[in-house]
Specification:
Organism: Prosthecodimorpha hirschii
Shape: globular
Strand content: 35-45%
Helix content: 10-25%
Number of domains: 2
Order of helices and strands: EEEHEEEHHHEHEHEEHHEEEEEEEEEE
GO molecular function: ATP binding; ATP hydrolysis activity; transmembrane transporter activity
Protein name: Spermidine/putrescine ABC transporter ATP-binding protein
CATH architecture of the largest domain: 3-Layer(aba) Sandwich
Keywords: ATP-binding, Nucleotide-binding, Transport
CATH topology of the largest domain: Rossmann fold
Largest sheet: 6 strands, mixed
Family: Belongs to the ABC transporter superfamily.
Amino acid sequence: MPSDLACQDVSKRFGRFLAVDGVSFSVPGGSFFSILGPSGCGKTTLMRMIAGFEDPSGGDIRIDGRSVVDTPPNRRNVKMVFQHLALFPMMNVGENIAYGLRCRGMGREEIRRRVAAVLDRIGLPGVAEKQVHQLSGGQKQRIAIARCMVLEPDVLLLDEPLGALDLKLRERMKIELKLLQHQFNTTFLYITHDQSEALVMSDRVAVMNHGRFEQIGTPQDLYHAPATAFVAGFVGDTNRWDAAVVRTEGDRIAFATTSGDAMLGRWAEPSRHPAVGDRIAVFVRPEAIEVRRGAAGTVDGGEVNRLSGTVESILFNGAASRLLVRTAAGHIVEADLPQSGAAAGIAQGETVEVAWPAERARCFLAGAAAP
């Protein structure tokens, strides 16, 4: 059975600096859990405590319900894949994978059998005699994982392992890592600052900021229902307006942006309630915005925000394009442009209307939002 992992109120201080601030979460056995956050938010420190390389200043770390806080790294059945993989260049592929088994005193024939079996499982049979420098970047990645998985760890920790790969290989490896995790049915804990990695591969994601978790949820939860301004700004592409509350009616908010536009939105923080005059941050996804030729018209039913602007730039990205529209107030609005329909063929310099339902404008009290 795959192993559960749980952290309970884990913290870490370096002198007066609080790197990890009372973090609690649990990872069901056999799932893929990611910690997503900007550089310096504390995610690597948290992973090092789980691995045993750092001692927590407080809290508990449990694997299958047993505390491992007082267990040294070499006695925890936890393995780690680093960004630079740390393969031994003086050993061939088979020797790299066999290293941990030899350290455990396993017999030669059993080692040979296990190395061959794990190479089959990662789709690289017959490469045991190759030298590390003969492998592609993706092959090295899989060998680094195989070196860990041959030891049958309870938990595999992955510290930004795709960071050194080029973009095309990184995209392919995201899919391969997810498939490998399913194949080995092992608990994966993955840390990254790259939202696309976390959203594509993970069953659940924790968004970390300044040593704390802002939100834990499925990738869909984080994208469609962010709990804080930071998560709304950090996960996925988004438009942001700074504004002040003009009127509240339940979770419906009327507000005025700092650029002078009057808009409507939906309140997204049920634990806090805004008052007239409160400063808020408003987020709208580019795919929620409809673009039409011509200046903003009248509302044709429902609560819809409409602005006029000029197409300042068109960013082509293969299957989709994105318009950058500068409104009369000088604000840049990003909107996804469909490849067919009335908006297709809009050109730079045209006057357009951008519109979106009030329901799609998510409002938060102004605070530490992601840039």
